[in-house]
Specification:
The chain is built from five helices and five strands, in the order ααββββααβα. The protein is α+β, with helices and mostly antiparallel strands. A five-stranded antiparallel beta sheet has the order 1-2-3-4-5. A hairpin with a 2-residue loop joins strand 2 and strand 3. The longest helix has 16 residues.
């Protein structure tokens, strides 16, 4: 078992999956590869609130999302910037209460909201995260 906070050992994606122990992570990872052909990069974060190894998905040099591994679940960071804000806010009533609450409770800084969304099961919040990433992808003008 890996220590997700050990800066001296860089885990691979298989080891991160084993740490999380959730088939939802494997499905999410596959989705990001299949739909976006996203570049996956495992990096160490020294942030106090999220110290440890994380998984970043990028396309054409732009960030799509970041995964923070936890035991039995994972947290997805999706940034809603100026380009996505209007679109997200128009669709917000269609999102789950959980996502709406996160959105409304996240302070905006530099025209961005950094949404930290826990994915514990494959419910509506999981689908909402995929929609948020789709919006980010479309608004960034990223070419598949």
């Amino acid at each position: 078992m890996i220590n997700i906070k050990d800066i001296n050992y860089a885990p691979n994606i298989s080891e991160i999956s084993g740490y999380i122990e959730s088939p939802i992570f494997d499905e999410f990872y596959q989705y990001m590869n299949d739909k976006y052909k996203a570049v996956c990069k495992i990096e160490y974060s020294k942030d106090v609130w999220a110290r440890g190894w994380n998984v970043k998905f990028r396309k054409s040099g732009k960030s799509l999302c970041v995964i923070y591994p936890k035991k039995n679940y994972f947290t997805v960071l999706v940034v809603v910037g100026n380009k996505e804000k209007e679109h997200v806010e128009n669709l917000l009533p269609q999102f789950s209460e959980y996502i709406q609450k996160i959105y409304h409770n996240t302070r905006e800084g530099n025209g961005q909201k950094w949404l930290m969304i826990d994915i514990i099961s494959k419910n509506t919040s999981y689908q909402d995260v995929l929609r948020l990433i789709d919006i980010r992808y479309a608004q960034k003008g990223i070419i598949p």
